[in-house]
Amino acid sequence: MSELFDQFLIESRELLDGVGAGLLRLERTLDDKPTVNELFRAFHTLKGATALFDWPAFTHLVHAAEDLLSAVRAGEVAVTPDLIDRLFAVADQSARWVDHIETHQDLPADAGEHARRLEERLRAAPEEEGTAAGTDLPDAFGWLTTLSHEERAALRAALPPGGTLTAVAYDPDPECFFNGDDPLAFCRRIPRLALLRIEPVEPLPGPEALDPYRCLLRFRAVSAAPAADVAPVFRTAPDQVRLAPVPATLLGAPAPKPTPAAPMVVGAADMAEAILGEQRRILTLDATPAELEGRIASVARAASNVLAALGRGDEAAGVQAAAEAAHAVGRPGPLANHLATLLVAVTAAAVGAPPAEPAETRTARRALRVEPERVDRLLALVGELAVAKNRLPSLVRMAEGGDARALPRLLREVYEAVGGLSDELQDAVLRLRMLPLSTALQPLPRLVRDLSLRLGKRIELQVSGERTEADKDVLDVLGEPLIHLVRNAVDHGIEMPERRAAAGKPETGTIRIDARQDKDSVIVEISDDGGGIDPAAVRRKAVENGVIDAARAASLSDAEALPLILLPGVSTASAVTDLSGRGVGMDAVRTAVEMAGGRVEIASDLGQGTRVRLILPLTMVITPVMVVEAADGLFGIPTAAVAEVAKVPATDIRRLKHAESVVLRDRLVPVFRLRRLLDLPDGEGGAATATVLVLNLEREPVGLVVDGIRERLDAVLKPLSGVLATLRGYSGTAELGDGRLLPVINLRELL
Amino acid sequence: MPIRFDGAVARFEGACTVEEALPLSEWLAATADARLDLAGCTELHTAVLQVLMSARRPVEAGPADAFLSRWVFPSPVPGEGGARGGAAGG
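Output (structure tokens, whole complex):
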């Protein structure tokens, strides 16, 4: 669009990155005043930036965040983890909007609704939020009336004197495993647990028909702790849990009613259908006018949430209108009818809308920011090149004028000067593309924070060497593997605090990321002090999946067995990462790194931790290649080695014993045929002319006969992997324009 | 890995994470007389629990872990029971 618009995208993303980093700092030290100031200024600047365009929802939202921070600065509001969560929610929403704005030049249609909800959340005191969630939908607690004698007795025993029990109805999102949630682990952390029921939401099929990645269980629990202590356990899934005090009467009286059958839940649309149906049923239950009023409000809220989850948030207004109508007539009819209509609509559109993308998968385009010094250097080099060029006309005159004795020496001088400059220019241009590693590391602190909160682990992320530079393309390659490896370390590496304590380790685990440059490589090391990888388990898995045979596995040392985890079929984490929606396991990490011309090393001490080292080239090496044909196959020959292409009559190639040769420009050139070198079938039959590439390898030129020449191509060479890595004679593969792989020949080895 | 398939017995050791769910369900589907040894299990991912509940196979040895033994597998389960007690309360 306009320069102003582009500037907004860059600036707002930088501000939001700063906000994310600031919030993480604030979370560590709640009374960090400079950070509060910094966050305040960031939101203030962002507000100013959004105000330049006509996006009132955006401006209002960041304004609300700014107000809240202003109150914090004035000491009126204390910084709490909850407050930080709310500010994170604003930052995430803003980031999503910036992405949307980049593609659509405008805010999404539901921006006003989102902004309003978030603003309410910003203004609400944390306690209010807790009670609001607690009184929502008391119908979720019908099961309390079906407690057995023993259960009631146990609850009576757990009842704190003068206190109440907190009932928990936790209905995990069926897709929650994909977010890294483990509902059972949440329940484990409910303080003073007095009762836990684990129920299938629907009758479970046998293991052969079960989709193990959809959560089909729900949890009903009672805690002897107050709701305020239970709620933090479900911090990352507040929308899936409801808390309510257990009515004292329930603990005494026997319960006659059985719970109604659980609704069938299959896909997202089915789920929505089930919820809407259930809400409609709730409306038909007998109620006092006061109860009915609360019920109408909560049903309308639930229905709006379902619509939002289905991506039909714009239909929420209809629900509100129906709720108001129901409210006005004092009967549930209008809302119930509207729900019936919605049910039909939702069922008709039964192909479920894809779930909203989580903020962390956002991959903003990496803007190339160039330091002025680097441009200055480039300019200086161009100046020197002009000087070198200006020496040429006098040499031309010299050559024309006859006195050419000094010419060879002077020409060589100019050649050397230009050669040196061209090398320097290449270096300077490559440096323009160099970015600090911090751009690839930037999402990791937030990832560690969110994941460790979810999993109930305590983890410190230490990063060093983030100023190490690498080529922009290398950084792009690095991003996904880094996220994956850090996620692995959080998920599988670092143990739960209790287990760490039992093992004599500090309860807080550490993940370290060290980046450094070593000659022409960037080395990024991700290490954790977690449980480590069991080499015996890796061996077993490799044998089970037929990657190697048992005898070979047994002969491997631990250090040799460990890298097996990088091979497809051994990487035990692949299931998990498919879950997290990235589709990469350890073997994909290896593939990505090798595609960029790098390699992966792994070391682990059982019980002590794991270290993964990614070694990547500093720059993506670009090799110009010539695409040639031989026996219907295409091969690449590095152009640098080709001095000349000659077409000669086939009869000119003469055979002497086993060696062939051709005379080119009065010189006898030994000739090899690519087909023979590659063991391809001979039979080119009676072609009248032969195409000979004259190669400058060592001192003597060598001819290489090919069937034909296709094109030239600037290729990023990728090393061969797997079985192919053992093939000699190839230096790697390049990708052709149509996606086919082109093997590039290593001439030195082949000839 | 945390689940070892030892003939017809699946032995759970340590923290059984979500990635065990798929191999476990495949093994259970293929092993008619499967039995479970949960003694060494310290943590069980919900996905794995769900697979166990769907398969209803006998538990040879219950978990030593306090949370799992009290709330998830209250007693070694006879015969066809599966993960009963707390786990099948509804």
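The longest strand of chain A covers residues 509-518.
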